[in-house]
Design brief:
The chain is 26% helix and 32% strand. It is α+β, with helices and mostly antiparallel strands. It has a single domain (8-162, 170-442), classed as Anthranilate synthase (4-Layer Sandwich). The protein has a 17-stranded antiparallel sheet that branches. Strands 13, 14, 15, 16 and 17 form a 5-stranded antiparallel sheet that branches. Helix 3 crosses helix 9 and helix 4 (216-226) packs across helix 9 (424-442). The radius of gyration is 21 Å and the shape is globular. The relative contact order is 0.19. The mean pLDDT is 90.
């Protein structure tokens, strides 16, 4: 049976933040939030997605599709959902995403792909996904807005959207003391000197209690105002929510099969003046430890992408370039490859998860050591938020600078790459630098 292409209906412009209230009554919804200067292509488009056709939830040993327990492999179900959502839209090419599948895959699901088990349990799902058929697309640069509905639903009334400015107070407590965490850094350095690994990404979490009437939407608004990010997102399900201000792209896949990943490794404070920022940028660019950290992850991602790329297509167009973000400077590299024609976005995810920038090298042994030293499961943190469009193209982010809500708790994670040159106190201070914007925004 032929499928009807969804129409693109332009509606009066409203800033994306004015449309967020449409999420309140939706049990499943997603907001792909491109923050920062809209002159940058990666910050140009935002998408609000409603009314999914299908949902998938992998929690512990239970796998449910559309709320009903199912048997089989989660990745097979994911591929089936992605394929069934394919409907080439009318006006294709105007808008980069007109509907498709959006989901979250946890760090532990990535561990399982590498045959590494964890001694921890997590309240977060291992994987959630939804095939969205109704999309509001916002072009922030041109200040234009479109409604796309594959089921003919009317556009939500954005004129009635309310904007609440109340900041929900939270008290985040670290799960490890400074001494315990810095001792873990020293343990990783010992593993490196013993020849087990070259690098490992050590993290920890801060936990806050939240009540049943916790205003999740107000919390997301606070997060996006204080930490605008090119890969921000709000993913809402009945039992779990992700509020993300991620600055890091994980893997993108074009309709033509071009793969790109942009790992971030190496961090320094932004500076209070333009002169300080320039000085810090030069310091970061010349830092031997930070450059080594970035280079090792670049090599790891070259290997991961090479698993599914055409022979000879993998290249590194950008290596350890200093880029500016809202609160810090980072070293960012870019690795590209061409996906083999018989493979798809699901194959690409399976070959590359969990993200190399949050594991270490060699990846499998680094994950084993991380699990030994960290105090809890990472859950959504250090996993990936992914979006696979009707055209088969994909974009995804590394889940960092994010808040995950499961039950009556919120968790925030931070960490950094540890090498043989690491100074434990400096690593601890860098971790605090990364997490401070979120903690400071919500501290009661």
């Amino acid at each position: 049976m032929s499928r009807v292409s969804p129409p693109l209906t332009e509606i009066p412009w409203r800033p994306p933040e004015q449309a967020l209230s449409a999420l309140e009554a939706a049990p499943w919804a997603a907001f792909l939030d491109s923050g920062g200067p809209d002159t940058e292509e990666r910050a140009r488009w935002s998408f609000l997605c409603l009314s999914p056709d299908e949902t998938l939830n992998w929690q512990g040993e239970s796998l449910c599709r559309n709320g009903v327990p199912v048997a089989g492999d989660v990745w097979t179900h994911l591929r089936d959902m992605s394929a069934s959502a394919r409907r080439p839209p009318k006006g294709e090419g105007i808008i980069p995403f007109t509907g498709g599948m959006i989901g979250m895959v946890s760090y532990e699901a990535g561990m399982a792909l590498e045959n590494v088990s964890s001694r921890h349990t997590s309240p977060a799902p291992r994987l959630i996904a939804a095939s969205f058929t109704d999309v509001l697309a916002f072009d922030r640069r041109e200040e234009r807005c479109w409604w796309i509905s594959q089921t003919g639903n009317p556009a939500p009334d954005l004129t009635r959207s309310t904007v609440r400015s109340t900041r929900p107070p939270l008290h985040f407590a670290p799960e490890q003391s400074q001494d315990v965490w810095t001792d873990a850094v020293r343990s990783i350095v010992d593993f490196i000197r013993a020849g087990d690994i070259f690098q490992a990404n050590l993290t920890m979490r801060w936990i806050a209690d939240c009540t049943d009437n916790f205003d999740e939407l107000a919390a997301y608004r606070t997060l996006r105002q204080t930490s605008p990010a090119p890969f921000g997102a709000y993913l809402k399900t009945p039992d779990f929510s992700l509020l993300s201000a991620s600055v890091e792209r994980f893997i993108s896949l074009s309709q033509d099969g071009l793969i790109e990943t942009r790992p971030i490794k190496g961090t320094i404070s932004l500076g209070h003046t333009a002169e300080e920022t320039l000085r810090n940028s030069r310091l970061l660019a010349a830092d031997e430890k930070e450059r080594a950290e970035n280079l090792m992850i670049t090599d790891l991602m070259r290997n991961d992408i090479g698993r599914v790329s055409q022979i000879g297509s993998v290249r590194v167009p950008q290596l350890s370039k200093v880029e500016q973000f809202p609160h810090v400077l980072h070293l960012v590299s870019a690795i590209q490859g061409q996906l083999r024609p018989e493979l798809d976005a699901i194959d690409l995810l399976q070959a590359t998860l969990p993200p190399g920038s949050v594991t270490g090298a060699p990846k499998k042994r680094a994950m084993e050591i991380i699990d030994l030293l960290e105090a809890s499961a990472r859950g959504a943190y250090c996993g990936s938020l992914f979006c696979i469009g009707n055209d088969g193209a994909m974009d995804s982010s590394v889940i960092i600078r994010s808040m995950a809500r499961a039950g009556d708790t919120l968790s925030v994670g931070a960490g950094g790459g540890i090498t043989v040159l690491s100074n434990p106190m400096r690593e601890y201070e860098e971790m605090l630098l990364k997490v401070a914007p979120i903690l400071n925004a919500f501290e009661a």
